[in-house]
Amino acid sequence: MYTVEYHANDDVRLVEKPVPEIGPGEVLVQLKACGICASDVMEWYMKPRAPLYPGHEPVGVIVQVGEGVDQFKPGQRVFIHHHVPCMTCHYCQRGAFSQCATFRATRLYPGGLAEYIRVPAPNVQLDVLPLPDSLSDEAATLVEPLACCVRGIDRANIRPGDSVLILGAGSNGLMLGQLAKMRGALRVMISDFIAYRREAALKAGIDVAFDPQDGSIEEQVAAVNDGLKPDVVIVTPSKISVMQQGIDLVAPGGTVLLFAPPPPADELSVKPNHLFFREITLRTSYSAGPYETRQALDLLRTGRIRSESIITHRFPLQEAPQAFHLVANPGEALKVVLHVD
Ligand SMILES: [Zn+2]
Ligand SMILES: [Zn+2]
Q: Where would I find the Enoyl reductase (ER) domain in this sequence (predicted)?
């Protein structure tokens, strides 16, 4: 079988590996489609760990079940989550699933971008979700990234009537914006340099889209937001300068959510005095757990989040190098999905 092997953004290979063997409690899934995440082209994380077998948004069909697996059978279409928590440790009991040691240790083999994927027993037990016939393979690849957005929105402290500003109108920005509206945000604004993305955001139901080249974001926000700063700012890029901008832009009493990780050595300078007297909350959101994947699947199943508003490019698995190149240099691309026919 073929699997995608990552060495660098401009060195993504298709390599042959034996079809994985499965043990008790495990299942073997034949890949149908898998999205590529911005984190899959985050070279500071990926390159030192190469060769890597990326892909964490896979959807496929169960072709074999291990001994003791009675809740699934061959032929079922499923979403498979790459990480699952233990549900019993200190962090799991507090809902901080991505901090659980089991969460960080569980992974798909060889990765989500392989023709056949071995799903470990803990993942089979907790976060393999059968898909309704009404949901396409492609749409279901959004379960994982949408789950991360659901968690992000939960952590962003949005209250009904809030105004929300999202920096970056990529696929995550668009999903976060739609979720913010569902949570009762009165006005959802987004900012991006690329016109196509701003238009896509407006089509997805976001109220206002700003071009940073049209002048200061603060003034553009004030002009449409009753002269007020946004109550919540969500920073989707991993750039320090944009995080800094988020802290400067948020209203007193508001929350800044950092949605993507910068390299470990990067530093963000904050003035605690500025945060203190304005009661500004700085939060982060990392990955998603089994509650969020179920919410995400339900949002997609019921059409409250429509994949057509998010997925813009499709490639066969064999063209993974071109697909990774596009995600690393997205321009007008939003979500890029690889297919196996
Ligand atoms: Zn991701
Ligand atoms: Zn745990």
A: 7-338
The Å distance, Cα 244 to ligand 1 centre, comes to: 23
Ligand nearest to the CA of residue 34, numbered in listed order: 1
Burial 100-112 (b: 16+ CB within 10 A, else e): bebbeebbbbbbb
Name the token pair of 39: 């984190």
pLDDT tens for each residue of 227-265: 999 999 999 999 999 999 999 999 999 999 999 999 999
pLDDT in the model for residue 237: 96
* Confidence band, pLDDT 50/70/90 cuts, at residue 161: very high
Is residue 51 reached through a cis peptide bond, with omega within 30 degrees of 0 on the bond before it? yes
How far, in Å, is the centroid of ligand 2 from the Cα of 291?
14
Domain borders along the chain are 2-145+287-339, 157-284
CATH of domain 2-145+287-339: 3.90.180.10
**pLDDT of 341 higher than 90:** no
Tell me the CA–centroid distance for residue 90 and ligand 2, in Å. Answer: 7
Mean pLDDT of 134-152: 98
Task: Give the residue-averaged pLDDT of 39-53.
Answer: 96
User: How close is the Cα of 109 to the center of ligand 1, in Å?
Assistant: 17
- The superfamily (CATH) of domain 157-284 is NAD(P)-binding Rossmann-like Domain (3.40.50.720)
Chain-wide mean pLDDT for the chain? 97
Choose among 314, 322, 321: nearest CA to 340: 314
Q: What element of type H or E holds 336?
A: strand 335-339
Residues in the chain: 341
| CA of residue 89 to ligand 2 center, whole Å | 4
Residue 181 alpha carbon to ligand 1 centre in Å: 22
- What is the distance in A from the centroid of ligand 1 to the CA of 328? 14
